[in-house]
């Protein structure tokens, strides 16, 4: 198969985990290899993904080789594959726009973004020159203008998009139509971790409906120490994130909860947690005889590798759609891998429909 030429917008922890994973899984892998949903997908192996362009705004990353930039501060994710190949890719200065929250300047350099003193590149021009097939968007939460800038660049350059953050592109009718008109696929929005808080919460909520008990109220509180959690201390940046996470759980219920009985979202920034995310979840329900019961869950995950486990399939599916001439939002792919897809499905159905889509049925 021809390589999948990948562009990366945001060289943070998620990009680091993704590139580490591509190298980590280069040796022969089988269908039961830990960490992979698909060792091979539509004929594409993990090692077929090749970075050809990268964008960031941090002065410790811009102008550096990509294989060095993914380990530069403030990145703090687990390192499970230190040796990366020389990609021949230099990180380009992207547009800042609303990508950096103002309060970042109040935190130490090893925790926060520090904007490079360089003019932004022409993203569409770089994408065209690199001949990228797919751009994966890892902008910080709340970067509405920045994500839309990269989406527009994809449309102008003829590049498919995987939108991993909660700015609604694939799930927004107007953006979806633009990708259709340009004959480009888009996967989104807001990556659903491989086995994280959202998928566990969704599964428990659906289980309650299937078992005939009534969920009365629930919360999910998350803490972490990476730049994503620091960024999300700014409450004004969280609107889309809260919508995405809440609707993801509500979609699994036969009768959605009243707004006052469900609270899902980031809770606090704990620096020493680094890329470790801790989730506290509670579901209060009534069973036979209206007897009150509850479930409490504590989940601890390494946030960015958890994301990469899904992104690795999204990228290959986007390329497969390009090969097949499929354009617009990829509903089956998005429903399985994203929190806010164009169409919410129950997770077992999403998996079945995804497998049929990959097989071309």
According to DSSP, the number of beta strands is 13
Estimated structural class: alpha/beta
Overall pLDDT confidence: 96
User: Over all CA atoms, what is the radius of gyration?
Assistant: 20 Å
The biggest beta sheet reads: 7 strands, parallel
> Count of DSSP helices?
11
Question: Into which percent range does the helicity of residues fall?
Answer: 25-40%
The CATH superfamily title of the largest domain: NAD(P)-binding Rossmann-like Domain
Kindly report the spatial arrangement of strands forming the biggest sheet. 5-4-1-6-7-8-13
Spell the H/E element sequence: EHEEEHEHEHEHEHEHHEEEHEHH
Known CATH architecture of the largest domain: 3-Layer(aba) Sandwich
Kindly identify the CATH topology of the largest domain: Rossmann fold
How would you sum up the global shape? Answer: globular
Domains counted in the coordinates: how many? 2
| CATH class annotation of the largest domain | Alpha Beta
Multimer state = single chain
Structure notes:
By secondary structure, this protein is an alpha/beta fold. 33% of the residues lie in helices and 20% in strands. The protein has eleven helices and 13 strands. It has a seven-stranded parallel β-sheet with strand order 5-4-1-6-7-8-13, with helices on both faces. It has a four-stranded mixed β-sheet with strand order 10-9-11-12. It has a two-stranded antiparallel sheet with strand order 2-3. A hairpin with a 5-residue loop joins β11 (276-286) and β12. The protein starts with a strand and ends with a helix.
